[in-house]
Amino acid sequence: MTLFLDSSALVELGVVGDRRELVLAALTNSPTRCASALARTEAMLALRHLALGPHELTELWAEFRSAWDSLHVVPVDGPCLDRAVEVGSTFSIGISDAVQLSAADRLPRPVGYLTFSPSQIPAAAELGFEVISEFGG
After folding, report:
1. How many domains does the structure of the chain reveal?
2. Range in 8-22, 102-116, 119-133 with the lowest mean pLDDT
3. Residue 137 domain-assigned (yes or no)
4. So what's the pLDDT on residue 136?
5. 131: how many CB neighbours lie within 10 A of its CB?
6. Residues 6+ apart with CB under 8 A from 32
7. Residues 6+ apart with CB under 8 A from 104
């Protein structure tokens, strides 16, 4: 099964705790791992806000880049954005969530969708993804 990580899952790689352990376990169990191009920017900005100083930021970004380099990147192009309009309208979710789900929707099934964003879970399940989250699916 292909694993898709949204921005919230990628951020958790930089935070010690149960969520990080869930992400690491999912990465270990999935040889094919993907994220949207948008997720890189969102996750790096979120890590910037979590860092307590420049040294910690450098460490967080280095760890993130290492994980990022192991992912296949799903482009956020015209077709993805067109699909995001449909997904956002259908599920009444925001732009970022709609883009993440639309990027994952381009992948051949089965797809595990790893998120810690409660607003994405019902949409991900209805789109046919196996939701991986502390909140369940």
Report:
1. 1
2. 8-22
3. no
4. 58
5. 18
6. 1, 2, 3, 72
7. 4, 6, 34, 36, 74, 111, 113, 124, 127, 129
